[in-house]
Write a structure and sequence with these properties.
Number of domains: 2
Number of helices: 13
CATH topology of the largest domain: Aspartate Aminotransferase, domain 2
Helix content: 25-40%
Structural class: alpha/beta
Strand order of the largest sheet: 1-9-8-5-4-2-3
Radius of gyration: 21 Å
Distance between the termini: 25 Å
CATH class of the largest domain: Alpha Beta
CATH architecture of the largest domain: 3-Layer(aba) Sandwich
Largest sheet: 7 strands, mixed
């Protein structure tokens, strides 16, 4: 059996090595390392794939979220509604800009922001909602967009974990996550479904004015070179990463299919075990399984994690401490929030290896070790 890894980027690379190596060499020979046709071509191809009018690449997913908030004119003292059960970057950028994060609960089934909880949290200072499509499952975007419209709020989608996910509205319209809100943000961190060989990110919008602002802010606030219209930052996707990502974009749908196949295997193995709740798959949502995350019922989660590690099975806890309990948000009153479901989940979730290169031998071994501990 091949060694187990949480994400096997090396084997994935070996399958497309010739394509990737040729694309990287072409960039090296051109000496156009920042900007240029390679970056522009990738942005156009990704916008087309995502069903968005504009795609603006940047240095990473965290920058994408920050730049989005800056482009929408969010200011210190404004409030943004965010799920506490998320990676810290979603909320960190608000704190960095001195925007107040207002933490709300998630749906127990989907792990995504709970629309009822978010609507109750709206105040006169609320300016935006940041739904996170966690683990590859879309948030309830139809309801969220309806709430946002009623209250005149912006929606910034954190799509770092769900690129390629199809969301179906009640009228039958299908859109990719990241193309539904006012701005969509994604990450190309190497472990992502569309991962670079380093850092990278992008923003999506159908609004021409917003697209221009996003581009300016990501490039020192300049509309043309050396003419700086707004305060911005320096956030660029380099040409080598763009070249690699453009190759991998052609394979993204097959990567998603491989992840779903692996998830199907796990589902079948764990479905009848009352101590394990398998990931929820909603009818209007095509889960892309950035993570395969279980909820344990009456099982020592930390004990299982330690046992799997001892047996050579990688595993992760996403996330052991919710955002509202992180010290960095004490100044925003984070510890004052009562989010019992979020706390409950942080004590019970565990993620197993899932990636494009998993085979049945590996998954059988993983499943056997999980069940050995759970069924004690």
């Amino acid at each position: 059996m091949r060694p187990l890894q949480m994400v096997d980027t090396k084997t994935q690379y070996q399958k497309i090595k010739k394509e990737v190596d040729a694309a990287v060499l072409e960039v090296m020979e051109s000496s156009m390392f920042i900007g240029g046709n390679v970056v522009n071509t990738f942005a156009e191809n990704l916008a087309r794939y995502n069903g968005s009018k504009h795609c603006i690449p940047c240095a990473n997913g965290t920058d994408a979220l920050q730049i989005a908030m800056m482009a929408l004119g969010l200011e210190p003292g404004d409030e943004v509604i965010v799920p506490s059960f998320t990676y810290i970057a979603t909320v960190e950028v608000a704190g960095l800009l001195r925007i107040k994060p207002v933490f709300v609960e998630v749906d127990k089934r989907t792990f995504c922001i709970d629309p009822a909880s978010l609507e109750k949290a709206i105040t006169p200072k609320t300016r935006a909602i940041v739904p996170v499509h966690l683990y590859g499952h879309a948030a309830d975007m139809e309801t969220i967009m309806s709430i946002a419209a009623r209250h005149n709020l912006y929606v910034i989608e954190d799509n770092a974990q769900a690129i390629g996910c199809d969301y179906t509205f009640s009228n039958g319209t299908v859109k990719k996550t990241g193309s539904i809100g006012h701005i969509g943000c994604t990450s190309f961190y190497p472990s992502k479904n569309l991962g670079a060989f380093g850092d990278g990110g992008a923003m999506f919008t159908d609004n021409d004015e917003l697209a221009a602002k996003l581009r300016m802010i990501a490039s020192h606030g300049q509309s043309k070179r050396y003419y700086h219209d707004v305060v911005g930052c320096n956030s660029r996707l380099d040409a080598m990463q763009a070249a690699i990502l453009d190759i991998k974009l052609k394979h993204l749908d097959e990567y998603i299919a491989a992840r779903r196949k692996a998830a199907d295997f796990y589902d079948k193995a764990f479905a009848e075990n009352k101590s394990i709740t398998i990931p929820f798959r909603e009818g209007n949502n095509k889960h892309v399984f950035h993570q395969y995350t279980l909820i344990l019922n009456g099982v020592d989660r930390d004990g299982l994690s330690q046992y799997l590690t001892e047996q050579g099975v990688p595993n992760m806890i996403y996330y052991p401490v919710p955002a509202h309990r992180q010290k960095m948000f004490d100044a925003f009153g984070g510890s004052s929030y009562d989010l019992p479901l979020t706390d409950w989940l942080t004590e019970r979730v565990i993620s197993l290896p899932i990636h494009t290169e998993l085979d049945e031998e590996q998954q059988n071994f993983i499943v056997s070790k999980v069940l050995e501990f759970v069924n004690r």
